[in-house]
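STRUCTURE:
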């Protein structure tokens, strides 16, 4: 996709670009990114910025001896977030806005829609949304864990057509370019498969929490929604000049030709299953065609504690994952129905209360 066709893009900037020396924020690498954002906006392209760096930006304010505990990291994030926002704000002559989110916000459909609406309202008023994970309040159960995957989730929420992930290398190589001088850059990836993941390796930055693997994960989420995705070297201004010239400076991940619908993409890639319904291994019903074929008689077990409207995983007893779906039953009621010896009673109760899952709220999972 040429820059001339961009309507709305998301740019993800990592901690190593924000605070490369972990001595507070630096505009050394950010200036080129800011100029790129300004040029895009001048061309009528709406921009959403996902910016890591709060912990790295605030770390120099704390005495550090030995291993840093989680409470101190959260305090670093609290102190560094304001410095990071101030740094971005100084680089623009238009207003910016801060949006801090957790995975708990994104996986809750009502809050997810609220985030979408906020982003749209900011863009409609010419304000640059700057998003980051809320490290100060997040917990293991609520966190995304890295801003690469967060940027893909935000790209979907923002209805972006392009996602640009800044890295410390030019893109995805067939081996680690820091270790192998003969490593070759992959300019285009049309299919994200196990071989592509095998090339990702581990993290290359001592500052950030993500490596190339999380960038591939993010690309997989984004292209599934039809979003062109690029991994580029954010440390060189030439990368952004190349994009503005219509050239690919890194690795371009081609979008799926048949993108997932937004609510199914959210269920597959953003929402977290709160429990699971285990069906018999002989279960053969086509969940996407007629979900009402899933009856209490075919349920082997109900695991977890979930409420009506929560996302659940439907799997076979042998572990095969079939689908993620919105449950029309609580785990308590579903367990009660499934445990009934009187199948006629169970069937009558189910017919009264409706299907276990509805066919418009199912996202099939690939093997």
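SEQUENCE:
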């Amino acid at each position: 996709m040429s820059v001339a066709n961009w309507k709305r893009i998301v740019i993800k900037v990592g901690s190593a670009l924000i605070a490369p020396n972990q001595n507070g924020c630096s505009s050394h690498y950010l200036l080129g990114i800011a100029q790129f954002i300004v040029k895009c906006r001048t061309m009528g392209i709406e921009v959403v910025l996902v910016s890591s760096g709060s912990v790295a930006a605030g770390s120099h304010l704390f005495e550090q001896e030995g291993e840093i505990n989680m409470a101190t990291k959260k305090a670093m994030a609290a102190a560094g977030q304001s410095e990071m926002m101030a740094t971005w704000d100084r680089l623009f002559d238009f207003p910016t806005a801060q949006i801090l989110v957790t995975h708990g916000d994104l996986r809750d459909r009502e809050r997810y829609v609220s985030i979408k609406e906020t982003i749209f309202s900011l863009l409609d008023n010419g304000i640059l949304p700057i998003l980051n994970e809320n490290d100060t309040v997040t917990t293991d159960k609520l966190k995304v864990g890295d801003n690469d995957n967060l940027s893909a989730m935000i790209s979907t929420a923002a209805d972006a057509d392009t996602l640009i992930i800044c890295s410390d290398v030019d893109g995805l190589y067939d081996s680690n370019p820091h270790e192998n001088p003969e490593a070759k850059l992959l300019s285009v990836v049309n299919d994200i498969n196990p071989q592509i993941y095998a090339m990702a390796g581990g993290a290359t930055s001592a500052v950030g929490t993500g490596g190339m693997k999380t960038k591939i994960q993010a690309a997989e989420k984004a292209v599934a929604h039809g979003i062109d995705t690029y991994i580029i070297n954010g440390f060189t201004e030439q990368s952004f000049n190349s994009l503005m010239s219509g050239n690919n400076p890194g690795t371009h991940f081609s979008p799926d030709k048949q993108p997932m619908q937004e609510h199914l993409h959210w269920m597959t890639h953003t929402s977290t299953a709160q429990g699971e319904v285990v069906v018999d291994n002989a279960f053969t019903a086509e969940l996407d065609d007629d979900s009402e074929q899933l009856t209490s008689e075919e349920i082997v077990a109900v695991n977890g504690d979930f409420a009506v409207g929560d996302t659940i995983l439907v799997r076979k007893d042998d572990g095969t994952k079939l689908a993620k779906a919105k449950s029309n039953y609580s785990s308590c009621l579903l367990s009660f129905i499934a445990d009934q010896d009187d199948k006629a009673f169970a069937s009558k109760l189910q017919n009264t209360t409706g299907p276990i899952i509805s066919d418009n709220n199912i996202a099939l999972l690939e093997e």
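REMARK: The longest strand covers residues 357-364.
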